[in-house]
């Protein structure tokens, strides 16, 4: 581990050498008076004063794991790399140093990049060790005991809706289900959930929210606060103004992708206003510019006191929807490779020098030359100022559309008044996003800035972030370079023979509809005691259009020629069925349109080869002799434009012509939401 706390010592460089490096990078120096020949900068003055009281209380910066399955591959990393990734995300004064972790309450349904398992697949079923969000919350708490935890459902198991695709017909059942998750977090993992949401980006029910508050209180969970409605500012703000009882039980109004703006009704509620999901942008330099701009302007323009990024870490196959839309990238557990992306260090500009409970100063926050600043204090004499000068084209987020604006180089003079008048020195941290050279400087500590009689000036170029702070605790930490990237192994086997697996799901399988879990087949006398089982037997209350079939993908999206072999066990009599597949081209929110080469066998003794998951494009069909409640071995061989298949080692079909897709993942799955088992998976 290494930490940088003196910019002049970075990499052993002296101060003159570091200054010269800025010139070589094509990134202009920003502190102090303009040099000879420098163009005259526009100038403006800004006053920071706490004498007239403070602004809103700051609630923190965070990120989402889930919505869905965005941390799926992270858990498979070997040490020390997995712990290093977690340190970059959560360890205070190290990297992103996040204040908030928001996780999906798994509901067995597709929630963007995969499904996350529910703690209650069925009404009489409770298991608080499924999935990986429990583990992730514990790892975050271990690094930062003060981190705030939020739970939010995207989907719900079918039994919650009693057959309807709606969670509010039986609000007492839904409240019981959600409160069970909160109680389980405490009982089994000693995790205190701080905030709970309603239903991600879908309708809310005032009746349900009131009943949820009642159920929380009944179980001694008065400290758990309610966020609503994780969608838009309206209609929740308007309804809160009309319904005093609902107004009393909602603690935070959470809006998604607000474009740094709020609405008058939200302000009139006098509630905390959060951007409870934001960012969702490819994590290159433009993504960093987007994140820098909204972290400041969500408060400057919209009075939002917390901003939460989707997503925490891009730990899912990159070709799934919204690939690499995390604060950092960790999508190769098989190699150990990960990337600490620029948004990590943009985050640090705020998180390392503030804490939830600090207060914003009452300032306008707009820079006259474009860009913004915020100032926060702990009320004990500490002051942190964060300045950003992101230009339009270098800070566009994925949504909403960004109206054109201009940013120009400028000189900003700040006057410190009130309790800050006696500040003599400010620590300086700076990031400069260099789009021309591609060599950005991120979170560099510069020489401290002397404050002269309560004022100082700063020359600001475009696409910069500055933190000026009385705190001396900031650090840019790191590790030795992780291993180089490698493609998914071209010869991969899993026999699922593990008695006490650390997680409920087998490594590298990414469920896209349904849930595939390790299973102990106690009734099997021989080779199939430990298997992988599909366990969702009713279509969940969905968030998007889940497939009618279940499917879990694995491997390298670029694979063309492959042989997939797997032992299969159909549990559903008469109309049960399973498949193995190759060249699978889709997943996530687009799972219903998935194409590939699918080799199906059914309990009625027939087989089919289809070009799609839906089974509508039939390439061949016939009799197989396969029956339910017996083990069979399927082999699918795809070479060029031809495919063939074996059953129990003997040819069953051959010479099926394949045109599209030309490449894709391997996969396993079932005909419907039904129990089925898989064993001895092998892809080459």
From TrEMBL:
It comes from the Eukaryota. Residues 511-684 form the Glycosyl hydrolase family 59 C-terminal lectin domain. Residues 360-475 form the Glycosyl hydrolase family 59 central domain. GO terms for biological process: galactosylceramide catabolic process. Residues 1-30 form the signal peptide. Its EC number is 3.2.1.46. The active site is at residues 201, 277. One of its GO terms (molecular function) is galactosylceramidase activity. One of its GO terms (cellular component) is lysosome. It is an enzyme of class 3 (hydrolase). PANTHER family: GALACTOCEREBROSIDASE. This is Galactocerebrosidase. It comes from Hemiprocne comata. The gene is Galc.
